[in-house]
Design goal:
- It is a single chain.
- The protein is mostly helical.
- It has a single domain, classed as TIM Barrel (Alpha-Beta Barrel).
- It is 45% helix and 7% strand.
- The chain contains five helices and three strands.
- It has a three-stranded mixed beta sheet, with helices on one face.
- Helix 3 packs parallel to helix 4.
- The radius of gyration is 14 Å and the shape is globular.
- The C terminus is likely disordered.
Length: 130
Amino acid sequence: MDTENQAGTRGLKLAAARGLAVVIMEPLLGGRLANPPAPIREVIERASVKRSPADWALQWLWDQPEVSVVLSGMSNLDQVNANLDSAAHARSHSFQAADVKLIADLRQKYRNELPFPAPSATIACPAPTE
């Protein structure tokens, strides 16, 4: 959701360029991305590729070649199985232009719909220094 928070995309690329593994923690923002409000769910349902909201979020992360590991909390066996299925289909550089546009549309919709900023996923890598 927030590619500029903490180390952000810049830190992700810097860490990978230095050969560091990058671990993404709390990729679903404490479940907020897994259970979005109705206006956001409507955007997801219009996508040509059918995925759950959680799968869209996880696949977007795994589409980034610099991401080494995604740590997602799970509360029940259904969530474990859904995450395993998502991981089994994960590939970097697999998103098509329509997928990238959907994520951009979702990001904007979240910004418009939420009265306050949602906490961002943590990218566990060193902050860039200049």
